[in-house]
Amino acid sequence: MAASENVRNKSAVDDDDNAFEEAAGRYQEFRAKIAEKPTMDLAYRIGVGVLGAIVLVIGILLIPYPGPGWVIVFAGLGILASEFAWAKRLLKFAKKKYNAFMEWFGRQSMFVKALGVLFTAAVVVLTLWLLGAIGLVAGWVGLDQAWLQSPI
Q1: What is the rounded distance in angstroms from the CA atom of residue 128 to the CA atom of residue 24?
Q2: pLDDT of 1-16, one tens digit each?
Q3: CA–CA dist 114, 101 (Å, integer)
Q4: How is the chain split into domains, by residue range?
Q5: In the chain, at which residue ranges do the beta strands (DSSP E only) sit?
Q6: Transmembrane stretches, by residue range (predicted)?
Q7: Residues 87-132: pLDDT tens digits?
């Protein structure tokens, strides 16, 4: 039974690899058709650049918050890397540095990890205060204090 499971698992991996190669081939054909027309090629590259930059900036803004900030950064770089060599190099560099930092952070003491959690919590609370969310919720429960209101 174990041998048949290995064959089945290998078959599933081969199917995934084939599907990926097939999709990559279709994308390359699509991209080649666009590249034949200089105006379309320029418009496509500008569109990819704008979309990738927007996704990247959103990801950078979300890094300090709990959630998918880094995933969004890497997605933005991936979008840019589909058209720009500099972005491909930056994506590779960023992944390497991110993985090294996470490995380092994982080896740290509980004190350092707790400081990381406190820093993240402070950034979230500060942002909520600046955006007026804390004052809004405080008003709902009858805590109308001036210091809870956003300064902006």
Answers
A1: 42
A2: 555 555 555 555 566 6
A3: 16
A4: 1-35, 37-107, 109-152
A5: none
A6: 42-63, 69-87, 115-141
A7: 999 999 999 999 999 999 999 999 999 999 999 899 889 988 988 8
